[in-house]
Amino acid sequence: MLTSRPRGTNDFLPGEIEKWHYVEAKIQEICKEYGFIEIRTPIFEHTELFLRGVGETTDIVQKEMYSFTDRGDRSITLRPEGTASTVRAYFEHKLYAGPQPVKVFYVGPMFRYDRPQAGRYRQFHQFGVEVFGSKEPSVDAEVITMAMDLYARLGLKDLEVQINSVGCPNCRPIHRQRLQEALQAKLGELCETCQGRFDKNPMRVLDCKNPNCQELTTDVPTTTACLCDECGSHFEQVKEYLDVVGIQYVVNENLVRGLDYYCNTAFEIIAKGIGAQSSIGGGGRYDGLLKDVGGQEIPGIGYALGLERIILTMENQNANFPPKGGTEVFVASLGQAANKLSFDLIYKLRKAGVSAEKDHLNKGLRAQMKQADRLQASYVVILGDEEINKGIAVVRHMYSGDQEEVSLEKLVDFFRYNKV
Ligand code: HAM
Prior knowledge:
This protein is of the alpha+beta class. It has 15 helices and 16 strands. Strands 1-5-6-11-10-9-7-8 form an 8-stranded mixed sheet. A 5-stranded mixed sheet has the order 13-12-14-15-16, sandwiched between helices. Strands 2-4-3 form a 3-stranded antiparallel sheet. Histidyl-adenosine monophosphate binds next to strand 6, strand 10, strand 11 and helix 11.
C-alpha cells in the first residue's frame, strides 16, 4: 500500500454513505421550508479573511488553520468554518443590493488542525446557515428553531440548547474591564495561551478548554451581568420567541463560543452521552463581522452543525436510518448470447429509470443469485440459451420467491410499470 489516509480524515464507504445521503436530504428539505438558498464558496480563501473574520486570538487562528503559501506567493488557508467565506461572497457579489434579509445555507468540508478523537477530525463537514440584513430577535429565534427542528426530524433526543448574550461594542468594554479586574490576581495561574489573551481579548479566557482555567473562571463577571439596555432587551425577546414555539433552552452565562465575531446571541446545542465532543452545533449573531470583512455595517446571524457528530449521535441513539436502497433488478445470464442480451437489457432498464445490475465476473448461476441477494435485488431476471430460443426470460420475485415467464419484448415495460 502506498500510504494510509491522513490523520483526522475519514473515508465514507458504501454502507455508511447512505446515512450521509439521508441527513443531506433532510437538510435540503428543511432549508426549502425555512426559505434558505444554497451557496457554494471555495474550499480555500486568502488567509487574511480568517485572521480578520474568525479573530486573531481564537484557537482556530492561533493553532488550527491549514495555511500555506501558494506558487504565486500568496498566503492561502483551507477554510476552518463557513461564515467568513459566506460574508465575503455576500459583499463580493453585492447581495446586499437585493431584498433583505438574505438567507443562505452551505454543506461541505472544513479543516482544523486539532488533536483527533471520536467526533473531532481535521477534515469534518458542516451544514451552516447565515442570515444577513436583520437585527430582529425573531431571526435569532428562527435559526435556533430551525436547528432544533432538523435534529427532531432526524430523530435525535436528549439535546440541550444553551444560549447566552455576549453583548455589543457598547457593553462589552464594561465586561472586559470587570473581567480583567477579576482575573488580574489569578493571571499567573492561567495557561500560557490565556495569559497571552488577557490584554487583547480577555473574554476568550472564558472559552479555554484547559480545566484549570475553567476552574479559575467559575465566579468571574458574566457577559449577561454587564449587558446594556438594548442588548438585555434583545436577549429577552429571543427567549420569548423561543417560548412561543416551545423550544426549551438553558441560559449558560459562560458560553462565549470559540470565535471572535459574536455579539448578542450565542448558542450551542449539546448532545448528552456522546462523549467529550458533545457540541453538535452552534452559532450566534455577528453584527460587527460584516463591517470588518466588507466595510459596511450589516447585521448577520447563523449557525453550523457538524455532520459527523450528528451521525454519531444518531448511531448512539439508534435513530432510524432509512433501509438501504437495493438494486431493483439483477439480470443473471448464462452463455455468450445471454451475456450480450443482459448487457443491452440493463442499459435499457436504466434508461427507463429502473436500477439494474448484472454479473461482470462470469460467475455461475448460484453465485449470481448470491450476488443478487447481496445487492438486495427485488427481482432477478434469468436468461440462458433456452430462454432466448423461446423469446422469454424468467423473472423471479425475490420477496415471495414466485417466478413467472415474461416475453423479452415486454421485459423493460414489465419493470417500468412494476417499479418497486
Ligand atoms: P463552531 O462551533 O466552530 O462554529 O462549529 C460548529 C460545529 O461544527 C460544532 O458544533 C461541531 O459540531 C462541528 N465541528 C467543529 N469542529 C469540528 C471538528 N474538528 N470535528 C468535527 N466537528 C467539528 C462555527 O464554525 C461557526 N462558523 C458557526 C456559525 C455560523 N456561527 C454563525 N454562523
